[in-house]
Write a structure and sequence with these properties.
- This protein has two helices and no strands.
- It is flat, with a radius of gyration of 11 Å.
- The mean pLDDT is about 70.
- It has one domain.
Length: about 30
């Protein structure tokens, strides 16, 4: 539970810090 919440928080922070990079990675993962 704690790990999942922590991972979610990290992902949210990544999206806020760099949406462009996250979007690019998402496009690569999901073509």
């Amino acid at each position: 539970m704690v790990l999942a919440i922590r991972a979610s928080a990290t992902i949210c922070k990544m999206t806020q810090d760099g949406q462009r990079e996250w979007s690019a990675t998402r496009l690569i993962i999901v073509p």
